[in-house]
């Protein structure tokens, strides 16, 4: 069995404890740094099986550059190899922002001027300023070098394949969205199975304002969630929506008070973690793959997935626990 602990040891990395306030609230967390701005954490004790990917690039509001992208790739690959992982949460360590999008260095004064005009955004419905010093596509002001067209294409292609890898993970994934999720940041959230928003969440696909389109899956995953007409309006106009609107249109599963999205996501992750791991993985496969084919083929897929569970130890344990009126102890076999 390959675990995150063994992966970390093989990489020569050291686990450290999480800050004390979290130890009492969420038990113990172990940390593996996969890059300077992406941390992979594994909960333990009764929450063993829940893993977290933390985005931590505060200087540019978690804009995704090459280092963060490599960190995401390494994290998702480690999770894919970890047979003990049952559910993934992706969250931000940076206040008031989930992810500001792709960090594409832009050198033209016109585009920089456009970005500056987007630095301060407020939501009239709440009357609160929810973003500070945030551009539609975040720029690293210490590095003004412009990406060439081929470099941008290579980056976006890698971003798209990374999000597709995330979407195809065998375990459920939950995006914890507090604050801004713009462009590539929203596309990453769309690649997750579930999305939990705080009331201060602001979601947008602003790319057409910069004469490009969402290139990391946004034009395909968004309409599959909210319908073609709504997706077209959001992408054509770049309109920003709040967490409550995201829930009403089917883009998010829950909207909770600001600062409580992680608690809600953890509650859902704990519920998933208590279920039969093999059943969860096959349910995800049946839903995802069945959605892309005709009904007859989808029902055949469901039958195939169901049959794979009939002779498992977990199924027998579930039946025994039900008969004995106790909680089942699933082992993923």
Q: What can you see in these coordinates?
A:
The protein is an alpha/beta fold. It is 42% helix and 16% strand. The chain contains 13 helices and 13 strands. It has helices at residues 4-10, 20-26, 66-81, 109-116, 149-167, 184-190, 218-226, 228-237, 243-248, 261-273, 277-290, 295-307, 313-324, and strands spanning 29-33, 38-43, 50-55, 87-92, 97-99, 121-123, 128-131, 173-177, 180-182, 194-198, 202-204, 241-242, 254-256. It has a 7-stranded mixed sheet, sandwiched between helices. A 4-stranded mixed sheet has the order 5-9-11-12. A two-stranded antiparallel ribbon has the order 6-7. Helix 7 (218-226) packs across helix 8 (228-237) and helix 11 (277-290) packs antiparallel against helix 12. The chain is globular and about 60 Å long. The two termini are 12 Å apart. Mean pLDDT is 80; it is low at 1-28 and 106-145.
Short description:
The protein has 333 residues and is an alpha/beta fold. The chain has helices spanning 4-10, 20-26, 66-81, 109-116, 149-167, 184-190, 218-226, 228-237, 243-248, 261-273, 277-290, 295-307, 313-324, and strands spanning 29-33, 38-43, 50-55, 87-92, 97-99, 121-123, 128-131, 173-177, 180-182, 194-198, 202-204, 241-242, 254-256.
């Amino acid at each position: 069995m390959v675990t995150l602990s063994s992966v970390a040891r093989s990489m020569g990395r050291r686990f450290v404890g999480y800050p004390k306030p979290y130890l009492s609230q969420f038990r113990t967390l172990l940390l593996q740094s996969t890059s300077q701005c992406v941390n992979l954490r594994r909960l333990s004790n009764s929450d063993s099986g829940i893993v977290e990917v933390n985005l931590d690039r505060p200087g540019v509001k978690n804009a995704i550059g090459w280092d963060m992208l490599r960190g995401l790739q390494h994290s998702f690959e480690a999770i894919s190899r970890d047979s003990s992982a049952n559910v993934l949460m992706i969250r931000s360590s940076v206040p008031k922002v989930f992810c500001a999008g792709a960090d594409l260095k832009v050198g033209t004064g016109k585009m920089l001027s456009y970005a500056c005009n987007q630095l301060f955004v407020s939501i009239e419905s709440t009357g609160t300023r929810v973003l500070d010093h945030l551009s539609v596509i975040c720029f690293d002001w210490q590095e003004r070098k412009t990406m060439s067209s081929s470099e941008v294409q290579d980056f976006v292609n890698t971003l798209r394949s990374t999000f597709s890898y995330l979407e195809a993970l065998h375990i459920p994934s939950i995006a914890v969205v507090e604050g801004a999720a713009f462009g590539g940041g929203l596309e990453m959230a769309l690649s997750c199975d579930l999305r939990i928003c705080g009331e201060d969440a602001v979601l947008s696909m602003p790319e057409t304002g910069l004469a490009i389109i969402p290139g990391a899956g946004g034009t395909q995953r968004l309409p599959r969630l909210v319908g073609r007409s709504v997706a077209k309006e959001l992408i054509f106009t770049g309109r920003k929506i709040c967490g409550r609107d995201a829930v009403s249109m089917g883009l998010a599963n829950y909207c909770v008070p600001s600062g409580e999205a992680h608690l809600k996501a953890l509650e859902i992750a704990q519920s998933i973690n208590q279920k039969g791991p093999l059943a969860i993985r096959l349910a995800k496969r049946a839903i995802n793959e069945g959605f892309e084919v005709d009904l007859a083929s989808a029902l055949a897929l469901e039958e195939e997935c169901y049959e794979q569970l009939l002779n498992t130890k977990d199924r027998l344990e579930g039946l025994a626990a039900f008969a004995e009126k106790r909680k089942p102890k699933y082992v993923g076999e």
